[in-house]
Amino acid sequence: MKRKVLTTAAAAAAALVMVGAPAAFATSDGYTHVTIDGSLTSPGGWVGLSGTNDGTLNFETDFSTPVPMSCTVADVSGRILQDTSASGQVKAGNTIGYIDSLTFDNCDATDLHYDVKVTELNGPWPIVVKTTPTVAGSNVAVTIQGVSAYMHSDLPAPTPGNPATKWPCELIATSTGVDATVIPGVVGGHDGRIEIDTTGNYPLALQAADGWGTKTPTGSGTCGGQVYTGDNADMTGDFNVDVDPGNPGDNPISHAFLP
What we know:
Blueprint: E1 32-36, E2 45-53, E3 57-61, E4 69-82, E5 95-109, E6 114-120, E7 125-129, E8 140-145, E9 148-153, E10 170-174, E11 177-184, E12 192-197, E13 204-208, E14 221-222, E15 227-228, E16 232-243, E17 253-257
Antiparallel strand pairs: 1-17, 2-4, 2-16, 3-4, 3-16, 4-5, 5-6, 5-7, 6-9, 7-8, 8-11, 9-10, 10-13, 11-12, 12-16, 13-16, 14-15
């Protein structure tokens, strides 16, 4: 019997978010720093971000014949901090942000014949620079650390007090990190964009549960025996993000060298 996946995380993706304390304006330190609408210092401090997915988010296992689970609606929120000190340098290893919340809706695994409910676990998720950019305004490779999610079939739901009923499909997905690309925004478009594509890397580890929320050991299955503890999954999907409050494209996010 072929085993298929039902998993999520999210992707993703992510939102641009800077870490560190606001600092006085400084001279060039050889690294880029976040800009909002072309400014390195204004509005300054923590700035909220929110966004939605652009297209369907897809997830599939490393089993021999994977079939994706998909979510057509996802909302993300986070924070970004303009900081001209070393804390705000966009360089490899620096935590440049957090995704504070990620919610999914309208998810299904058609081949498993399940509509799916997804809940984020263990946020906020740090966003860490993977490769130091050498060109201001270029795309930034990042890793979204600690991505995890709990998911189960929408129906039928367990009946309280009746141990004979349980979720027929129940999973926990975790990872040490999901790679993504942060793309600066443009006037007239969205303020920024996050693209997640882990195809072939399978960073999400899947853990089956027994239908009542208890994890089951390696080799045990769920979703009619289509997903097993020990399976892994990829995810692909894009998020458009915008500075709060404001209209898309009013405050494009990028990065530049200090003068």
